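Board notes, transcribed. Complex of a protein with glutamine.
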Amino acid sequence: MAPSPAPAPDRTADLEAVLAEVAEQTRHLAEEGRVQEQPEELPSAEPTRFGLALAELDGTEHVTGDADVGFAIQSVVKVFALTAALRLVGEDLFERVGREPSGDPFNSLIQLEHEKGVPRNPFINAGALVVCDVLLEAADDPYGAVAGLLGDLVGEEATVDRTALEAEREGSSLNQAIGHLMSSFGNVHHPVEEVVELYVRLCSITVTTRTLARAARFLADDGVNPLTGAAVLSEPLARRVNALMLTCGTYDAAGQFAYDLGFPCKSGVAGAVMGDVTGRFGVCAWSPPLDEKGNSRAGRAALHLLSERLDLSLL
Ligand code: GLN
């Protein structure tokens, strides 16, 4: 007897109900992860926080859980820093940073020495530091080029969380080391302290699960900000950012994310995973406890189940 086919995913499902079901089935997975060491007064230090949000291109938003609680954007900002740099210098950026997955942790130094100070991609720390160096060169207001972009995408001004910023500054030795190594190869042009300061300020911008889902929509909409109708990136460049997110956005777990979710994502150590589904949504899941690769445990499981329930894989 032929095996019975798997139930067809539902593209017209009641999205609120699907989000609630996904949250119920996955949030407990946070229990097995660990929260990244950070100031205890930040909500991202609370292991039971969980938010899930979908932002449709027409502006309709669906959220569940702690979707309106603020946390530091952390590595998810690398998507917006890359976008800001591409707007300023275009694909010349890739003369200084590669487009290959690293297969190593996000803050690893190892490949950099072998590869003469050229980071594998813009989503590992080394790559993001080069992007910051490019912003310092090409933008009148390098912080504003990214924060202003994020503000336009979300529809409200981006602000820095002072507590997160202090913690980032204190914990920046490895980023300083990465910066100095690249500087010794001539791939960082500004003083390393300046480059790292820009990077940690960007990592400390406050976002919520809902605002990240909203901010991701331009990548689902051929580079256009659905809030304003303005082109953020050309359609080919928006595709390229998506390609980099799919292959490099979740560190050395990007292959597994592509396999399970099938749409581009970017994660950060405060527990957010932001993604986009071409022509449909921006999406974000947030749960602070991380797995051994630094990705949100429950966030990843939530997006995996959401992808199955709503047929979100583009592959
Ligand atoms: N601030 C963190 C760092 O650079 C961001 C890293 C991350 O979210 N993976 O170490």
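Residues 125-138 form the longest helix (14 residues). DSSP finds 13 helices and seven strands in the chain.
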